[in-house]
Specification:
alpha/beta; Leucine-rich repeat, LRR (right-handed beta-alpha superhelix); seven-stranded mixed sheet; two-stranded antiparallel ribbon; 5 helices; elongated
Length: about 220
């Protein structure tokens, strides 16, 4: 006999009575999923064939899922607001990032990311990692083809490591609302480290951004005779 389960989350499922048990489907109020028998227990039961069959199905499902994801051929991807609160989630997230070998535009906004230095994105031209927890340029992924990089609202204290992008085609950089923005001669230091940079924080490169510091101070002096 089949009975409908009373719980709302299981109301579209059916319950089949199991022999040698007194529990009926209509008596089940809070079903629990229990862990299956271990490999040793199955061996002593002489049911190890069950484990092999189960592993084979699991491996097949994993392979099918990998083919369906097809991260390797992804060109544009938005993985923002993922709420990565568990270590397993973070590791699985990084596993996906390591497969993005052809991605060109990537958004990773507000993911509580702290270190992606082990990740390489060889074709990425546009990367948005706003509202994360990066503290240094050294914690960013390897992005040799980057053209537009947005790092607003992180926790980057100094400009140390920014020269690593000197040999990339980086044209636009956003560092708004980072502590390094309050550093003295901030814009001059950034443009001197990145000669190919054309725009910083949404403002194009200005003549005074290239001025030597002594000349800049001289123009602000007022001599009274």
């Amino acid at each position: 006999y089949f009975f409908k389960l009373p719980s709302d989350s299981f109301k579209h499922l059916g319950w089949c009575d199991i022999e040698e048990h007194d529990v009926r489907g209509n008596q089940l109020r809070c079903p629990r999923v229990r862990e299956g028998p271990s490999e040793e227990e199955l061996f002593f039961r002489r049911e190890e064939h069950t484990l092999k069959k189960r592993k084979q199905v699991t491996d097949t499902e994993k392979w099918e899922k990998r083919l369906q994801e097809n991260w390797e051929n992804c060109a544009e991807l938005n993985l923002s607001f993922q709420d990565l609160g568990d270590l397993y989630q973070v590791e699985n997230f990084k596993r996906i990032l390591r497969r993005l070998i052809r991605v060109e535009k990537l958004w990773l906004v507000d993911n509580s990311l702290t270190d992606l230095s082990a990740i390489r994105l060889p074709r990425c031209r546009e990367l948005n990692v706003n509202k994360n927890h990066f503290r240094s340029f050294k914690q960013l992924p390897k992005i040799p083809q980057i053209q537009h990089l947005s790092l607003a609202e992180n926790n980057i204290m100094t400009l140390s490591g920014i020269s690593d992008f000197r040999h990339t085609p980086l044209e636009s950089l956003i560092l708004k609302r980072n502590p390094c923005e309050f550093q003295e001669r901030y814009r001059q230091l950034v443009f001197s480290s990145l000669p190919n940079l054309k725009m910083l924080d949404g403002i194009p490169k200005l003549p005074e951004d290239c001025s030597p510091p002594d000349i800049r101070v001289f123009y602000k002096m007022c001599t009274i005779l």
